[in-house]
Write a structure and sequence with these properties.
18 strands, five-stranded mixed sheet, single chain, 13 helices, globular, 31% helix, ten-stranded mixed sheet, alpha+beta
Length: 463
């Protein structure tokens, strides 16, 4: 996951005094605000539970009120701190870190826990209504949905909850996968301030070989079938007229297993499709359609009224980074007032040649998350690990339930050696900001990158 603290705000208390609050964004979306003392408390608890870890510098306490320059310096230090802590696999997935983020989200939204209902949808629009507490975390909701539709425990975490936005032309676009440090109820309500969103249950893995496990169970096979039919209707999976006719025949027969086996042979099965955007490959400002899946990023570039296709394997990406470009920064004539997001990755074009390739897209954060989750899944398979089960999660959480994040408490149920949850290892990404504010401050970070743990596994056969 990518964390940033791009700005602050002055908050007035009931007593009349004011304090500075730091706005925390995750994957480019506002998540919560936190005071310095709350983040100091997080730092102290992490140091207590992870004694052997190396911590980044934490901004020191100040006895006197801070000047605007000192507030900005503290903001940069806190941003750097939370980015580096989130990159540590043990700390970034710990109960302490997740509880801090979850509690801060509730406090920022002034959310009082109450009994509510939440609608979760399948890809065909079928609605599942679950009774929850408004502050329940993502995995609580996922397990509740799974229980209601009777997904076996061993298959619950093959699936995930995704935030999906309804676009102007009636299409749907995936915004992101919901994480356990947030409340889906709160996140959905916040997202709906900027368009119509819904929470959707989809499979949460990339390698279609996992389909074989789910096809052994009637319920999970039906979920795969629903998603495949939906993706074909939306043309997220491509098929010829003859192939579509064959699928329609299988559908009419009710042959779901055969339908899935045939669908798995089609182009872009198991891929995530992104909205049209621009790339600098092979030339600057080249229109491109990008799909992620199959251990690659697939490009369909539009050149001189022709569509040319190419793929970039994740095992040949040495690293990648996200950059925010503010209007006018690069001397162009762009009249837009909105910043642009870029995903750049360094790719091994040949044995001795590395090249940076950039995608300019509003979905750059989601692209980065997809790259990281594909890498995590690849490493998980190489290490022989499997998807966790609900009882393993609750055993790991121990006595955390009901505990609040307050000064002087420590969650000793989390061991530094606790096993990580597959596909939930935080993304080691530092956000590069290029813009007028960063330029004026002289603090633009040009070196923030996500190193690819799968890159070193490249063999001669891959080249």
């Amino acid at each position: 996951m990518h964390f940033s603290i791009p700005d602050t705000q002055e908050v007035k208390e009931e007593t009349g005094s004011t304090y500075t609050s730091y706005n925390i964004y995750i994957n480019g979306v506002f998540h919560c605000s936190a005071r310095y003392k709350q983040m100091r408390q997080l730092h102290d608890q992490l140091r207590k539970d992870f004694k052997s870890a190396t911590f980044p510098p934490f901004p020191p306490k100040k006895l006197l009120s801070l000047t605007p320059e000192e507030v900005e310096e503290r903001r940069l230090m806190l941003e750097r701190y939370i980015q580096l802590v989130s990159q540590d696999q043990r700390m970034g997935s710990s109960d302490i870190f997740n509880t801090f983020l979850h509690t801060a989200q509730q406090e920022s939204q002034k959310e009082v826990p109450e009994h509510v209902t939440l609608d979760v949808f399948l890809m065909n629009g079928h609605k599942i209504t679950v009774n929850i507490t408004s502050t329940d975390q993502t995995d609580d909701i996922l397990e509740g949905v799974a229980s209601q539709i009777e997904i076996p425990n061993e298959f619950v975490y093959y699936f995930g909850l995704f935030l999906v936005k309804k676009e102007d032309k009636g299409n749907n676009s995936i915004v992101r996968r919901l994480q356990d440090f947030e409340s889906p109820y709160i996140s959905l309500r916040t997202a709906n301030k900027n368009g119509v969103h819904r929470i959707v249950l989809r499979k949460g893995y990339w390698d279609s070989a996992y389909d074989e496990d789910l096809m052994e169970n009637k319920i999970t096979m039906n979920l795969l079938y629903i998603q495949a039919v939906s993706d074909l209707e939306r043309q997220w999976i491509l098929a010829t007229k003859e192939q579509l006719k064959h699928l329609q025949t299988l559908q009419q027969r009710g042959s779901k297993r055969e339908y899935l086996r045939f669908a798995r042979t089609l182009k872009y099965y198991g891929y995530m499709q992104f909205q049209p955007c621009l790339t600098d490959y092979p030339n600057n400002d080249t229109p491109v359609s990008v799909a992620a899946g199959g251990k690659e990023l697939n490009f369909r570039v539009h050149i001189e009224n022709q569509v040319k296709e190419g793929s970039f394997k994740i095992t040949r990406m040495r690293c990648w980074r996200i950059t925010t470009i503010y209007p006018g920064e690069r001397g162009d004539n762009d009249s837009s007032s909105s910043p642009k997001l870029e995903l750049s990755f360094e790719y091994l074009m040949s044995r001795d040649t590395l090249r940076w390739i950039t995608i300019t897209s509003d979905q750059a954060m989601l692209l980065s998350m997809c790259l990281q989750s594909m890498v995590d899944e690849l490493i998980m398979k190489k290490q022989g690990r499997k998807f966790r089960k609900p009882h393993e999660r609750h055993h790991h959480k121990g006595q955390k339930a009901g505990k609040t994040f307050s000064a002087g408490t420590s969650d000793s149920s989390n061991s530094p050696e606790a096993p990580l949850s597959p596909l939930e290892v935080p993304e080691r990404l530092i956000h590069t900001v290029v813009g007028e504010k960063a330029k004026q401050d002289g603090k633009t970070n040009e070196n923030g990158v996500t190193e690819n743990d799968a890159f070193e596994g490249i063999g001669d056969d891959d080249l």
